[in-house]
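Q: Hi! First time asking for a complex rather than a single chain. Here are the components, and I think there are two in total. Is that enough to go on?
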Amino acid sequence: MSPGGRRPGDSGTRDAILDAARSGFARAGYDATTIRGVAREAGVDPALVHHFFGSKEAMFTAALSLPLQPGEVVPALLAGGTEGLGERLVLLFLSLWDSPATREPLLGLIRSAVSHERAAAMLREFLTAEVLGRVASALDVPDAALRANLVGSQMIGLAMLRYVIEVEPLASAEHAAIVAAVGPTVQRYLTGDLT
Amino acid sequence: MSPGGRRPGDSGTRDAILDAARSGFARAGYDATTIRGVAREAGVDPALVHHFFGSKEAMFTAALSLPLQPGEVVPALLAGGTEGLGERLVLLFLSLWDSPATREPLLGLIRSAVSHERAAAMLREFLTAEVLGRVASALDVPDAALRANLVGSQMIGLAMLRYVIEVEPLASAEHAAIVAAVGPTVQRYLTGDLT
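A: Yes, that's all I need. Here is the structure of the assembled complex.
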């Protein structure tokens, strides 16, 4: 640790790392931001960043207050097998968005990606690095990256109509009705015939 | 026409009406804005607004530079019958978004709806008044409004991933591949079993 640098016990250390991470991701995007670079900007040892967050992905989701990490969610969803995967994914998505505490950061991410090219690039790089590869290697199907894109398109569109534009009757529909309608779409995108 | 008001021949008359319409829609939303109110704000006779635009819907799409009117598009798409309707809708949507001239206003509409609650309300009211009812009465199926919502969710999500966040491989995918993947989703939302 550099002389005068922060130490693990400092109450503000974790916050300082998160500030440096937010600023780095916003400026340089996901790919070009490193744990080493964030540590340097926060004035701490890289080992300390690893200690707090363990990975760049975890640092990113903490910096943006995102309610989950793809590295944890994707394996958990796939552990139940591919049958009913579409329905489980839609239900998880609805439960995250229907809780105000987790909805706000997700909404913030969509808002910045729509308004700022750099935020869109950051989200694109994050999805490519942390989500698409995981889904592709977990599903033994052709065109896995395109399939993950298609699932993402249906999920983001659902969020847009239900939570952003709030069109009825979708905005007030029960989870069960949405799962019945959208679950088979997601299932086909993941495992069905797309040609 | 009021004394000193604008006349049909004035070169700036149509622009003045569009300015008043944009301001009215942004301030009061779609439902509460009337041709009469826009005419008053623009200092012209309501008959002149009818002469230029014919309907509130046409005034709205002209004010926002939208490339089409639901009142024209929905009947045209449905005239081909329900078979293949999903694929035709996806192809029309892609052709609008892949032309920069029509993409920009659509992107502007999404950006404002995501950033401003009033713009979201305006878009919600417009979709409810001009799109959902038309689809509902054209399709002889139960839950037509929810079906139209679901189609909208897949279409907006496709635009978000392909044109806003620009995730690969979806951003560079050929129309034929997207139509093959997404067409059946839209077809099922419109005419299939959603329970």
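A: The CA atoms of residues 14 and 52 of chain B lie 7 Å apart. Let me know if you'd like any chain examined more closely.
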